[in-house]
Inverse folding.
């Protein structure tokens, strides 16, 4: 039974409704001495609370896509698997599109191509989802390559979160129809490569090289297996929450690979213990400090004034901007730290990126 599926939600709704009804029916029918009756009634109250918490937790998980599978929930994802021969093994689907050894396969439910490419530079192998615009297979665009937006979720989101909770593909299609956006390839890689470990998309000394995975390895897999433009002017990053931090940081660290970055409710100082314990790592992974030391990229910093700390973090970030870096603010008056808010910010974010990212070509 899937953590994100309707059967589990319906089951917990039934439990949450049945528990208080059963509690009321049994409250005055508990046999035994006073101590036994009190203990039984406390147990019934705890059961009602537990079923309510299970329902709320399931609804929250469905909204944020924090744990898409049971393995993610229990921290066993990615711990097992088979050793496979590495090499230039290549298979091709009916459409003739090349697959890496991770095997990009079309998932009809999400309309994405899902693969598990192995990073030659980072050594990481993790899930990546690729969404292709409707124009990809049009005769008018035959042979043409497309610009790319790399989508980074929050922690501990998955590669599916952007397509499930934020409905990014549908929002982009509407923006294209309204003339706000050009056709993009959307790429959503896994950023939490070790369950429960928030690296904030960084190369960790003695640990996973997540920045290398997200910049070099994911790009290699996408440009090899799909008609994606390889040049920096045709790539951008976009993220929410921790992913917003990552989007800005990676674009600043690698302006040779990315033209622009969009942060939705992100922050700009590292908080992960993997980084904060080392002053050099803090300097190398702080978006605010990188503004003064790296070649410029265009930044769009979005958030709401009611999302505590977001607007203040953006204002602070802007005070550190130096020409020729160009930074833009997109601040809403109301809205919480929620996917529905970020989903509503996507059309203007796409429009902003379209003015900066080149392609199709």
């Amino acid at each position: 039974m899937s953590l994100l599926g309707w059967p589990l939600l319906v089951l917990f709704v039934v439990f949450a409704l049945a528990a208080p009804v059963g509690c009321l029916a049994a409250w005055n029918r508990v046999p035994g001495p006073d101590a036994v009756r009190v203990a039984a009634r406390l147990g019934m109250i705890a059961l009602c609370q537990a079923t309510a918490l299970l329902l709320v937790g399931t609804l929250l998980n469905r909204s944020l896509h924090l744990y898409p599978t049971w393995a993610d929930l229990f921290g066993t994802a990615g711990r097992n698997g088979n050793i496979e021969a590495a090499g230039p093994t290549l298979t091709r689907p009916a459409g003739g599109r090349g697959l890496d050894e991770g095997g990009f396969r079309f998932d009809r439910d999400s309309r994405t191509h899902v693969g598990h490419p192995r990073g030659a530079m980072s050594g990481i192998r993790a899930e990546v989802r690729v969404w292709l615009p409707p124009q990809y297979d049009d005769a008018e665009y035959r042979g043409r390559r497309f610009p790319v937006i790399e989508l980074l979720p929050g922690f501990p989101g998955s590669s599916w979160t952007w397509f499930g909770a934020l409905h990014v593909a549908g929002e982009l299609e509407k923006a294209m129809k309204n003339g706000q956006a050009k056709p993009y390839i959307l790429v959503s890689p896994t950023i939490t490569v070790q369950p429960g470990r928030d690296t904030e998309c960084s190369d960790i000394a003695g640990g996973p090289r997540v920045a290398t995975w997200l910049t070099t390895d994911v790009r290699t897999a996408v440009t090899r297996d799909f008609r994606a433009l390889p040049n920096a002017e045709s790539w951008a990053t976009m993220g929410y929450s921790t992913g917003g931090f990552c989007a800005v940081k990676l674009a600043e660290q690698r302006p040779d690979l990315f033209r622009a970055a969009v942060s939705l409710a992100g922050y700009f100082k590292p908080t992960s213990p993997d980084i904060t314990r080392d002053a050099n790592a803090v300097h190398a992974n702080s978006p605010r400090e990188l503004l003064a030391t790296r070649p410029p990229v265009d930044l769009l910093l979005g958030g709401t004034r009611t999302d505590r700390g977001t607007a203040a973090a953006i204002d602070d970030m802007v005070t550190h901007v130096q020409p020729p870096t160009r930074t833009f603010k997109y601040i809403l008056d109301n809205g919480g730290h929620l996917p529905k808010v970020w989903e509503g910010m996507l059309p203007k974010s796409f429009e902003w990126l379209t003015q900066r990212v080149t392609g199709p070509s």
